[in-house]
């Protein structure tokens, strides 16, 4: 029951305000587009797309930002706070933080040259967050194809959606601690790539843990289909990335997205709409937060 016209009368400037703020943030730092896309994913997979990921810890909320997949990893909160302040100035307590995340994700992809799609709107914001659910429901980079398939199926997403959405790794960076096992322990990685990554990501955990490498070394700030060609040539950065092309049932989809950017674009756009529809709060559920990092009145 989300609708693309939800704010047309209540806040007609909302979408343009978000787009211009996202475009300037991405022009200032291209990686921010990746960070904003990931925020929406990490929101939707944990209790639905309800901006739960944005809530800071309080005496009564143990939030998601401290969860293992998020801690010292998620970024973009300041950009979202800035967008929210601009939208609040235009329309007081009208546009949800969850919708801002969904629109910012789309606008980020577009700003980096990727496909566009119509974002459905009308999600409301949670009054709770769950560190435990973030740790149980977000897929880990150590996952194999069966684990990944299950994590996406749990959210109503099929394997085509999963492969398409994983194409989000066509942009952005990952820290050594998340790809160390893959570059030292796995054999399904191009040896030249493994050696060059090892130079900045020592085998011993603790050293160089936060050193960054691009998820798509071919074109890290362009939203294109190079991620999939990389997988075909065993140049995935994360163990979980390379699982999508490792002799299993998703090899064909990876090949098809590697050979057709239009096939990837349309599958990605469709899957983003599906992901954005995970358990939205509507009607009288939740609230429209005034500040994205805290529940109203707290
Ligand atoms: C398939 C399961 C997935 C796993 C296991 C996974 C895991 C990860 C990991 C470990 C990182 C690096 C984090 C860091 O080093 O701090 C990362 C980054 C990223 N992920 Fe995923 N991810 C998955 C799916 C997705 C999906 C579905 C999207 C979006 C549609 C996405 C978008 C991103 C982006 C854009 C980045 C880079 C963020 C930045 O540079 O700030 N990922 N992911
Ligand atoms: Ca959520």
UniProtKB/TrEMBL annotation:
<feature type="binding site">
    <location>
        <position position="224"/>
    </location>
    <ligand>
        <name>Ca(2+) 2</name>
    </ligand>
</feature>
<keyword id="KW-0325">Glycoprotein</keyword>
<protein>
    <recommendedName>
        <fullName>Peroxidase</fullName>
        <ecNumber>1.11.1.7</ecNumber>
    </recommendedName>
</protein>
<keyword id="KW-1015">Disulfide bond</keyword>
<keyword id="KW-0964">Secreted</keyword>
<keyword id="KW-0408">Iron</keyword>
<feature type="binding site">
    <location>
        <position position="216"/>
    </location>
    <ligand>
        <name>Ca(2+) 2</name>
    </ligand>
</feature>
<feature type="binding site">
    <location>
        <position position="139"/>
    </location>
    <ligand>
        <name>substrate</name>
    </ligand>
</feature>
<dbReference type="Pfam" id="PF00141">
    <property type="entry name" value="peroxidase"/>
</dbReference>
<dbReference type="GO" id="GO:0005576">
    <property type="term" value="C:extracellular region"/>
</dbReference>
<feature type="binding site">
    <location>
        <position position="52"/>
    </location>
    <ligand>
        <name>Ca(2+) 1</name>
    </ligand>
</feature>
<feature type="domain" description="Plant heme peroxidase family profile">
    <location>
        <begin position="1"/>
        <end position="296"/>
    </location>
</feature>
<dbReference type="InterPro" id="IPR033905">
    <property type="entry name" value="Secretory_peroxidase"/>
</dbReference>
<comment type="function">
    <text>Removal of H(2)O(2), oxidation of toxic reductants, biosynthesis and degradation of lignin, suberization, auxin catabolism, response to environmental stresses such as wounding, pathogen attack and oxidative stress.</text>
</comment>
<feature type="binding site">
    <location>
        <position position="43"/>
    </location>
    <ligand>
        <name>Ca(2+) 1</name>
    </ligand>
</feature>
<feature type="binding site" description="axial binding residue">
    <location>
        <position position="169"/>
    </location>
    <ligand>
        <name>heme b</name>
    </ligand>
</feature>
<keyword id="KW-0732">Signal</keyword>
<dbReference type="GO" id="GO:0140825">
    <property type="term" value="F:lactoperoxidase activity"/>
</dbReference>
<dbReference type="InterPro" id="IPR019793">
    <property type="entry name" value="Peroxidases_heam-ligand_BS"/>
</dbReference>
<keyword id="KW-0376">Hydrogen peroxide</keyword>
<dbReference type="InterPro" id="IPR000823">
    <property type="entry name" value="Peroxidase_pln"/>
</dbReference>
<keyword id="KW-0106">Calcium</keyword>
<feature type="binding site">
    <location>
        <position position="48"/>
    </location>
    <ligand>
        <name>Ca(2+) 1</name>
    </ligand>
</feature>
<dbReference type="InterPro" id="IPR010255">
    <property type="entry name" value="Haem_peroxidase_sf"/>
</dbReference>
<feature type="disulfide bond">
    <location>
        <begin position="176"/>
        <end position="201"/>
    </location>
</feature>
<keyword id="KW-0575">Peroxidase</keyword>
<dbReference type="GO" id="GO:0020037">
    <property type="term" value="F:heme binding"/>
</dbReference>
<feature type="binding site">
    <location>
        <position position="64"/>
    </location>
    <ligand>
        <name>Ca(2+) 1</name>
    </ligand>
</feature>
<dbReference type="InterPro" id="IPR002016">
    <property type="entry name" value="Haem_peroxidase"/>
</dbReference>
<keyword id="KW-0349">Heme</keyword>
<feature type="binding site">
    <location>
        <position position="170"/>
    </location>
    <ligand>
        <name>Ca(2+) 2</name>
    </ligand>
</feature>
<feature type="disulfide bond">
    <location>
        <begin position="97"/>
        <end position="292"/>
    </location>
</feature>
<feature type="active site" description="Proton acceptor">
    <location>
        <position position="42"/>
    </location>
</feature>
<feature type="site" description="Transition state stabilizer">
    <location>
        <position position="38"/>
    </location>
</feature>
<dbReference type="InterPro" id="IPR019794">
    <property type="entry name" value="Peroxidases_AS"/>
</dbReference>
<dbReference type="GO" id="GO:0006979">
    <property type="term" value="P:response to oxidative stress"/>
</dbReference>
<dbReference type="GO" id="GO:0042744">
    <property type="term" value="P:hydrogen peroxide catabolic process"/>
</dbReference>
<comment type="similarity">
    <text>Belongs to the peroxidase family. Classical plant (class III) peroxidase subfamily.</text>
</comment>
<keyword id="KW-0560">Oxidoreductase</keyword>
<feature type="disulfide bond">
    <location>
        <begin position="11"/>
        <end position="91"/>
    </location>
</feature>
<comment type="similarity">
    <text>Belongs to the peroxidase family. Ascorbate peroxidase subfamily.</text>
</comment>
<feature type="region of interest" description="Disordered">
    <location>
        <begin position="279"/>
        <end position="298"/>
    </location>
</feature>
